[in-house]
Amino acid sequence: MHKQSTSAYGVLAATMFVLVATPALAAVSVVLSPTSGHPKTAVQVSGSGFTADEAVDVYFDTTDMLLAFTDDSGNFPNHQLNVPGGAQPGTHWITAIGRKSGDGNQTAFTVRTNWAEVGFNERGRRRNPYENVIGPANAGTLDLAWSVTTGNFVESSPAVVNGLIYVGSKDNKLYAITASTGKVKWTATMGNAVISSPAVANGIVYVGSGDHKLYAFNAANGALKWTATTGGAVQSSPAVANGVVYVGSADNQLYAFNATTGATLWFVITGAAVYSSPAVANGMVYVGSFDGNVYAFNAATGANLWTATTGNAVYCSPAVANGVVYIGSRDNKLYAFNAVTGAAIWAATTGGAVDSSPAVANGVVYVGSGDGNLYAFNAANSALLWTATTQDSVGSSPAVANGVVYLGGYDKNLHAFDADTGASLWTAKTGGDVISSPVVADGVVYVGSDDNNLYAYALDAGDNAAYHRNPAPPSYATLHPDYRLNQK
Questions:
Q1: Could you tell me whether strands 244-248 and 42-48 are parallel, antiparallel, or unpaired per DSSP bridges?
Q2: Is the CATH code 2.40.10.220 the one for domain 139-451?
Q3: Within 2-88, where are the H helices?
Q4: Which helix (H) or strand (E) holds 404?
Q5: Are 134 and 440 in contact (CB under 8 A)?
Q6: Cα(89)–Cα(442) distance, rounded to whole angstroms?
Q7: Which of 125, 141, 192, 420 has the greatest number of CB atoms lying within 10 Å of its CB?
Q8: Where are the domains of the chain?
Q9: What is the per-residue pLDDT across 356-406, written as a single tens digit (0 to 9) for each?
Q10: Residues 464-477: pLDDT tens digits?
């Protein structure tokens, strides 16, 4: 609780606040649900302990966002406040002040732009739509903020949730790392290499291992919750949707497990190993197989809905957008299939195997190729928009955020390209091949390397970044009512 006065309400109101409002202030509260989220999150704000039948201004930082009215008891029910799209990651303050009494209180809201699983979410589009820190104009000032060394190659792609980074290593461990410091918070050891990329949902982190198992750990402390056994190495990365974890295995099967208990819900057999990570959309789950096929199954039952054939093994993972499934093949092509029927819409040819999983953003599909290029195709008709060259073949998958495409390569570099033009914006050299796919969250780019490290890059190495600070709540003197807001 904060007891402040403000000239915005006049000298008399401020004087009354100091002289007579202290008992009321002790009971004033502002409640938020949720208390953290991405820009544009709808937050429910309620208050109690105000004067009866008064207007209450509700501010996000120093901007008056909405006007609420108390009842006869001095309370106001939930009102929806939409977090501004430009709100950068970090601590912000929601303040409610009564216009009649001057009574008020403040509650912190944390803006985060989490990247929770390998495809950003279960649809696999590999685009963070909430990133608002790094863009084409400033990506060139990205610099190393920190790195963490593991015991072997880091080919797993990180997940970033609520200030923690989760990533696997070929040293058989899953790491949880504090984003602000780069310090390891906990590790969990499995029976074989962790190439699978973790997925985080509802406080649980899921990841596969070469020991044939899918693991579920408490995301806060690494305590093991359950394991589920398959018949082969689990290099596929799990997708979590509607309380179910979907993951492929080298035993040629796709599995669905209960996300809470690990109980097997169903499994289906394909014609070869499933290294592809599934995507889930509209009650269907999609995955590629080394038999050269793309499969669509009923997400609830595992019933096969359709199968589409490519010309070679499918190692990469699908992305689903606007009723279309995009996926690459080792036949050097990127394919677009109708998500409902599996009918081929188009195929676009590159100069090498497409092990890179596509990213889809703003009507464009981005994908890397074994020929060393990043391709940008029109998502509707496969027209080539541009190509950008790396110095070696590409197995990493692109990530798109705020007009920038990030991609790793066998040239040992992490690259950043302008999403509209393909112009090179920035590169960072690591000590090994970058097979791990980059992610962007909270204004930081994370990627693993075969030099055994996980890297974090931020603007100017994160020095003095607003999203790393914890600002004090605004003084009431800086808060000015917007009298254009609807009156009662």
A1: unpaired
A2: no
A3: 10-20, 22-25
A4: strand 404-408
A5: yes
A6: 5
A7: 125
A8: 7-111+468-478, 139-451
A9: 999 999 999 999 999 999 999 999 999 999 999 999 999 999 999 999 999
A10: 666 666 789 999 99
- Per the DSSP assignment, residues forming a β-bridge with 446 are 439, 456
C-alpha span between 451 and 431 (Å, rounded): 5
DSSP secondary-structure letter at 98? E
3-class SS at 116?
A: coil
- Separation between Cα atoms, residue 42 and residue 60, nearest integer Å: 12
Separation between Cα atoms, residue 39 and residue 89, nearest integer Å: 8
Say if residues 469 and 90 touch (Cβ distance below 8 Å).
yes
Count Cα atoms within 13 angstroms, Cβ side, for 379. Answer: 20
Question: Mean pLDDT throughout 297-302?
Answer: 98
Name residue 265's amino acid.
L
Instruction: Give yes or no on whether 7-111+468-478 and 139-451 have one common fold.
Output: no
Q: Just give the CATH number of 7-111+468-478.
A: 2.60.40.1930
- The token duo for 79 is 């009102």
| pTM reported for the whole predicted model | 0.93
Residue type, 275: Y
Question: Is the Cα torsion angle 169, 185, 469, 65 positive or negative in sign?
Answer: positive
Joined tokens for residue 388: 């950008």
Total length of the chain: 488
User: Tokens 């995301």 appear where?
Assistant: 219
Long-range contacts of 320-324 (CB under 8 A, 24+ apart): 320/123, 320/124, 320/125, 320/279, 320/280, 320/281, 320/286, 321/123, 321/125, 321/360, 321/379, 322/379, 324/379
